[in-house]
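Review box. Two proteins, two foldings.
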Amino acid sequence: MLKIYLLTVLTMAMLISCEAGNDDGKMEKTNKQKVVELLKSIETGAQEPVAYINPEKYIQHNQAVADGLAGFGAALGALAEVAANDPAMAPKVNTVRVFEDGDFVITHTDYNFLGPKIGIDIFRFENGLIVEHWDNLQEKVEETASGRTQIDGPVDVLDRDKTEANKTLVKGLLNDVFFGADPDKITDYISTEQYHQHNPGVKDGLAGLGEALTALAEAGMPMVYEKNHAVFGEGNFVITVSEGIFMKEKVAFYDIFRIEDGKIVEHWDTIEKIVPDSEAMNTNGKFNF
């Protein structure tokens, strides 16, 4: 069944790409729309959105998925087989927020495949087609320290004219606070009046953040940011992609910040363990932007 599904996906992608290229009468969809439709197809089984992926070039950075369109098709086929054997495991996809930065589209999604998860995905486009994908997935929890969910909160992209200033603000937070150049500057970046927290183990506010970090350090398991790989943003949303240590394991940190009036007022994240290269399904690396 998996081989048949994969062959169907590949064939449909080729045919639909050709049709799209020959139909000048259709209104071109935005890159955001293409990504949202592609992710939703994981739930619906719709094959048309696969045509948004370049069939000749699709660089995969999810360590559990093989490279190329074939790898994407195989992953979908595996999910379909699981759902066929157990309908309760049928995938669900609800993309809650989406923003873009140049050729990159970032999505924040409530998933349910092989168990409930929160995912942050990054797609890169060339000539209207997806050519590269990165992501970070974290198990969904029922109760969080702040009482907020891992994905609720504002979704509208605002203040697009402040994109570069907001990215600069977040880069300053990374350098001074996350990487320790001048931690006392934290109030230059994060609001002292409102800091809504969606990390499941951290309470709201600067006090909640300090409490959580202190508890980890005292337990001999400090959260350590070692290197930043990318910063993307649109308007009031900025995402950073970094690597470091959490719970004594090598991890990828994907952090989304919401900025209002020059200060960070909200934070979402996903933290995922990095597997050794020898165990990965592709050779593209977890980062490599």
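Next protein.
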Amino acid sequence: MAIKRIFRRSLAQTRKELLQFRRDPLTVALAFVLPFVALLMYGYATRLEAKDIHIKIFNFDDGKLSREYIDAISATDQFNVSAGEGGDIIAPLDRGEAKASIVIPPEFSRLIKQGKTADVELIIDGTDVNNARVIKNGFFALTQFFMSDHGLRQSRAPIGTAVRLWFNPGRKEPLQIVPGAIALLTWIFPALLSAFALVREKEQGTVLQLYASSITAFELILGKSLAYLAIGMVEAIIVVVAGLAFFSVPFVGSFTAFVICTTLFVFSGVLFGLWAGSKANNQMAAVQICAMIGFLTSMLLSGFIYPIRNITYPISLLSNFVPARYYIEASRDAFVRGGSLLAHWYIPFFLLLLCLLILFSTTRGMSKMQIAK
């Protein structure tokens, strides 16, 4: 009977929240329009692979090989090549006109034809470390291709390698960006909505009626979380369908595993929003908590942009308490690798554990507030 009473009161609270949500057009727009727009921005604006990098080439050789070498560098969309003027090879980097300068020495063609070494100088702007690494690796790869294409290698390498890119052979960036963006958006928007819902009760004073009623903190939190879990799942469907439609991201994983992980992940976001709402006294404070503690950690400590192993210890330990860290892996399994539920059973386990921890913390905080009132 006690369990039946708890669910009856919680469902009553759920119905109340859904009615209030439906009557607020601004909240409806925040829930269903902004996630769609944000996914388009993430998918089209975020680019991890550097392209169209401006490079100045100073060619001090008039031979045919040097011109063909420049043509080989210009043929790729990775570099935007233009001729350097004068003899100051550092000036384009100082003025920000180029990210690198390539110097082809005099007698370049003659030395190569004689079987001698012709040293080509590459000067890179190292203010952007990742960009500098891309320029260096791209330049070496193009040089090796040019030598192989013109039969300039002195001897055959004793070991040959055959490289295959698995899961994403075309190196399509949406396959990297969109699954991670789905994780961020299906977490932060339900968190904001649930935080606003609880803070609104405080600002309007209706929370005092809840404190005075017989409803418990657990029933209150459960009722609100179920309402915004339903809204969050609709948001997840919108974001996933948009990813499939606009970015041609295929679904290759286990549908059951994805639904289970998505439900637990959205539920953790809703509970976090309620926790933030229990700590904040106004909507501005709730937004700051969700942004600084929720969104920032989901962005930086989840593996969305760079691998978790690259995070410095002991900050890397915090990633174990970030739900997005687990869901991004599940999302990439669903859209890129095609993993099954049994292969990554620990993902729903840890998501459920985090849900219970946040639920316990939020319920305990609300119980103290009820007693204080």
